[in-house]
Amino acid sequence: MIWLAGIYVVMSLVTGLAYWLDKRLAQGGGRRISERTLHLLALAFGWPGALLAQRLVRHKNRKGAFQLVFWLIVGVHIAAWAWWFRR
């Protein structure tokens, strides 16, 4: 199980960095990271980093449709953990 915690940490760092970079690109008018990519990173065990980045960098935290998909991703992870521990 320690390897899974490591995956969460690494993917959270990658996802947080992607949010930070997208925020900088948005401010500078550069080519942005797609919302789909940000969601895929969150789904790929990076949701804790995404949540932290949304709070610290204040990026993508007001967009309703984006938040809906994000919280569905978090729900999928929580449901998977609940299933794992109940079996």
Secondary-structure class: mainly alpha
- State the major sheet: none
Q: Report the end-to-end length measured between terminal Cα atoms.
A: 16 Å
Number of strands: 0
Shape: globular
Summed up, the helix count is: 3
| Mean pLDDT metric | 95
Q: What is the CA-based Rg, rounded?
A: 14 Å
Determine the fraction of residues in helical runs and give it as a percent range: over 70%
Strand content: under 5%
Order of helices and strands: HHH
**Low-confidence residue ranges:** none
Précis, in short:
This protein is an all-alpha fold and 87 residues long.
Please provide a written account of the structure.
With 87 residues, the protein is mainly alpha-helical. It is 83% helix and 0% strand. It has three helices and no strands. The model has no long low-confidence stretch (mean pLDDT 95).
Q: What tags apply to this protein structure?
A:
mainly alpha; 3 helices
Secondary-structure blueprint:
Layout: H1 2-28, H2 35-56, H3 64-86
Helix pairs in contact: 1-2, 2-3
